[in-house]
Amino acid sequence: MTPRQAFWRGYWDCAPFILIVVPYSMLFGVVARDAGLDVLQTMSMSVLVIAGASQFTAIALLQDQAPVFIALLAALAVNLRMAMYSAALVPHLGHARLGVRALMAYLMVDQAFAVAVRTYQDSPDMKPAAKVAYYFGAMLLICPFWYAFTLIGALVGQAIPASFSLDFAVPVCFIALTAPLLRSGPHIFAALIASGAALAFSWVPWSLGLIIAALLGVFAGGQAELHVTRRAQRLIS
After folding, report:
1. Membrane-spanning residues where (predicted)?
2. Do residues 121 and 17 touch, judged by C-beta distance below 8 A?
3. What percentage of the chain exceeds 70 in pLDDT?
4. Fewer CB in 10 Å around end: N or C, the chain?
C-alpha cells in the first residue's frame, strides 16, 4: 500500500463517524453558548483543545460554579486518555519527525485513534510511511467537521428545538469507540470496574467521581493483566 492509498483509506475508514461528530460538535457549540461563552470563545476552545469530552466537562463544571482550578483539573484528567492513546501509537508512529509527531498530537481525536490503532493491529505489514499517511487521512476527515459544526451550533444553537436531543451523540460515540477495543479479559474487567465506579461515585461534587473511576479502572486493568501474565508463565513452566 502506497502512502497515498493509505491516506485515502484512513480518510474513508473514518467516514461513518461523521454521523456522530456532526451532532456532537454542534451540541458543544450550543452548550458553550448557553454557558455564556461568545462565538469566539467557543471556537477558540474547540480549536485549541479538540477534545469533546474534556470540553463538555469544563463547561459543565463552570456552569456549576466550580473553581476554575477544579474545572481545569477535571478536564485534564478526562484528557489523560490521550496519553494512553499516544503510548499505544508509539510503536507505529514513533519513527516520525518531531514536528510531524507534534502535529499528530494536536490532531488526535478518539474516533480516528480507534480506527488507526485497529488498522495497525490488523495490518502488521503496513509500511511506516503508510502508517503516517493513514493517520493523517483519518484525522483530517474528523477535525474540519468538528470545527465547522461547532461554529454552526454556536451560531444557530438557540434555534435548534430541544426535542432534537442532540446529546444522544455523546454516549453513542464512546460506545462505538470503546466496544471494538475490548478484546481481552483485562480490557473488559477494567471497563466494568470503571463503569461501576463512575456510577458509585456519581455523588462526588464537580464530577470528580470520574477521576476516581478512571484511576480505579486503570488499576483494575493493570492488576488483571498482571494476573493473566503470571498465570501464563506458570502454565509454561
Report:
1. 12-31, 43-62, 69-90, 132-156, 162-181, 210-228
2. no
3. 86
4. C
pLDDT tens per residue, range 202-223: 888 776 777 788 788 878 888 8
Side-chain-side CA neighbours of residue 214 (13 Å): 14
Averaged pLDDT, 109-116? 83
What long-range pairs does 223-227 form, CB within 8 A, spacing at least 24? 224/185, 224/186, 224/189, 224/190, 225/186
Q: Output DSSP code: residue 183.
A: -
* CA-closest candidate to residue 2, choices 133, 192, 178: 133
Q: Per-residue pLDDT tens for 135-180?
A: 999 888 888 888 999 999 888 866 665 555 555 555 655 565 566 5
d(CA 75, CA 61): 9
Instruction: Name the grid cell of 32.
Output: 458553550
| The model scores a pTM over 0.85 | no
d(CA 135, CA 103): 11
Number of residues in the chain: 237
- Give the pLDDT mean for 57-78: 77
Give the CA-trace dihedral at 82, 85, 86, 91, to 10 degrees.
180
Say how far apart CA 171 and CA 218 lie, in whole Å.
Answer: 20
Query: Are the CB atoms for 84 and 123 separated by under 8 Å?
Result: no
